[in-house]
Amino acid sequence: MTTEINIPSLDSLEYIPYLDNNGQLTDKFQGIGAYAIFDQEKVLQFVGYSRDVDFSLKQHLVRQPQKCYWLKVQTIDRPSRVLLESIRDAWTAENGSIPVGNESDAAKWSEPIDAKVAMTADEQTSYNSSDELTQSKILKTIARRVESQILLELELRGVKMQPRFNPKLKEKGLLDLK
């Protein structure tokens, strides 16, 4: 018995604005699916898939707010990694090249934000000469500073949602939505 996989072409799907007129991310993509994210000029930036498309789209917006302007989404009813990977691969092939978010910038799209890269020289010196508890406090302070910068960038972008970051990860100098 074979299963026919009907994969829509990326070109056949309509562009959907990442944010609505109220600065909110659409919530009509709850559940499983594949998605393509485009910048302001509708250049493909990232192709992904998720068991929770809505949450993944929020994560990407927080991580890459200036590259998330348009979406194309294909939801599916039942989890199928094979189908989701097939959609991602077909859309990438249709694009003619691997999007930067799936290649050289993959970590910026898929990994928690590393606030440690924003550590000042003084913070680095203090961090290196401190015990574990003090190091954790320093990392949390840095993460909060980077979080403030992200929130400001989202506000300037017109985003009205209030992201909640995982407090446990802040102690490690990382930011990711909860």
Task: Explain how this protein is built.
The protein is α+β, with helices and mostly antiparallel strands and about 180 residues long. It folds into 2 domains: about 10-110, GIY-YIG endonuclease (3-Layer(aba) Sandwich); about 115-175, no CATH class. The protein has 6 helices and 6 strands; from the N terminus they run βββαβααβαααβ. Strands 1-4-2-3 form a 4-stranded antiparallel sheet, covered by helices on one side. Strands 5-6 form a two-stranded antiparallel sheet. Strand 2 and strand 3 form a beta hairpin. It is elongated. The mean pLDDT is about 95.
CATH uppermost class of the largest domain = Alpha Beta
**What's the tally of helices?**
6
* Biggest pleated sheet: 4 strands, antiparallel
How many domains? The number is 2
Indicate the CATH topology of the largest domain: GIY-YIG endonuclease
Helix content: 25-40%
Radius of gyration: 18 Å
C-alpha end-to-end distance: 41 Å
N-to-C order of helices and strands: EEEHEHHEHHHE
Shape: elongated
Which stretches are poorly predicted, pLDDT < 50 over at least 5 residues? Answer: none
Which structural class fits the helix and strand makeup? Answer: alpha+beta
Strand segment count: 6
Strand line-up across the major sheet: 1-4-2-3
Mean pLDDT equals: 93
CATH superfamily of the largest domain, please?
GIY-YIG endonuclease
